[in-house]
């Protein structure tokens, strides 16, 4: 990352609540082509989230602890705060002298922008202001939130505006928390009803909806210079497994998440 930070724009997309098994299946069957074309060998990497719900997971992400590969071992991190005794800060790790990655990148000359989705980014009340408050610029509107059937389209449109307004010479760290996968998501599946509620099938439909629009986000992110992108989930969610509904629990479907990082070349198509 030491050859990336300072020369590339950076994009972090959290597909909030996305389950690994659903993401893997849709990639394998060719249902998410715009995402899959950027995944190594067309497949998501299976990782473990550092937390089981949005607030805790993002606090860890912004401290440099992205989801960890599931195989045993000391896995070097992309980013890490300078921390004596760290066993996962390797030669290629970008080390920052700040309490969080966002502040570290700002001190390195990046303009930091948050486009929020779920309630922890809604800036409604003190708790919902903590995470967006890390950024120089933050955006949230009701149409970005979990109850909007067009949330991701609205978030992408705002991202396009932000990128277009930024001076070309200014490096950008753009963070987008995608709310479409989070409950409620039943409205993404044709024929589903509010009375029937959310299901694994509606969750999958929400991911297909995100895939239809994410090419625009990638195009904006790489429009000024090469961009290094991380796309992952913060946690999964249960739809009845073991009697559980939802997350903030210690269950395999919650702690196992999809992950990928890749370069977006300015010369590529969407």
Notable characteristics:
transferase, hydrolase activity, 270 residues, Sulfatase_N, 20% strand, alpha/beta, Sulfatase-like hydrolase/transferase, Alkaline Phosphatase, subunit A, single chain, Alkaline_phosphatase_core_sf
Q: How would you characterize this protein structure?
A:
The protein has 270 residues and is an alpha/beta fold. It has one domain: Alkaline Phosphatase, subunit A (3-Layer(aba) Sandwich), CATH 3.40.720.10. The chain is 27% helix and 20% strand. The chain contains 8 helices and 12 strands. The protein has helices at residues 20-28, 33-36, 54-62, 101-107, 127-130, 151-165, 200-221, 252-255, and strands spanning 9-15, 45-48, 68-69, 79-81, 94-96, 110-115, 137-139, 171-178, 227-232, 238-239, 245-246, 256-264. It starts with 8 loop residues before the first strand and ends in a 6-residue tail after the last strand. The relative contact order is 0.23. This is Sulfatase-like hydrolase/transferase.
């Amino acid at each position: 990352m030491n050859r990336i930070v300072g020369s590339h724009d950076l994009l972090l997309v959290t597909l909030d609540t996305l389950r690994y098994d659903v993401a893997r299946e849709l990639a394998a069957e060719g249902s998410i082509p715009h995402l899959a074309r950027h995944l190594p060998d067309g497949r998501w990497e299976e990782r473990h989230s550092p937390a089981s719900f949005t607030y805790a997971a993002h606090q860890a992400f912004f401290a440099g602890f992205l989801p960890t590969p599931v195989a045993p071992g000391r896995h070097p991190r992309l980013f890490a705060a300078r921390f004596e005794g760290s066993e996962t800060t390797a030669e290629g790790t970008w080390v920052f002298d700040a309490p969080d990655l966002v502040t570290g990148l700002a001190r390195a000359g990046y303009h930091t922008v948050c486009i929020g989705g779920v309630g922890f980014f809604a800036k409604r009340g003190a708790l919902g202001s903590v995470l967006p408050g890390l950024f120089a610029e933050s955006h949230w509107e009701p149409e970005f939130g979990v109850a909007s059937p067009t949330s991701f389209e609205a978030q992408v449109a705002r991202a396009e505006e932000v990128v277009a307004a930024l001076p070309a010479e200014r490096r950008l760290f753009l963070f987008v928390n995608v709310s479409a996968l989070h409950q409620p998501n039943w409205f993404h599946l044709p024929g589903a009803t509010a009375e029937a509620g959310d299901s694994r099938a509606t969750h999958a439909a929400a991911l297909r909806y995100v895939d239809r629009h994410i090419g625009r986000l990638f195009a904006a992110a790489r429009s000024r210079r090469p961009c290094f992108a991380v796309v992952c989930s913060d946690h999964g969610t249960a739809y009845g497994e073991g009697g559980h509904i939802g997350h903030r629990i210690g269950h395999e479907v919650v702690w196992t998440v999809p992950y990928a990082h890749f370069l977006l070349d300015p010369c590529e198509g969407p």
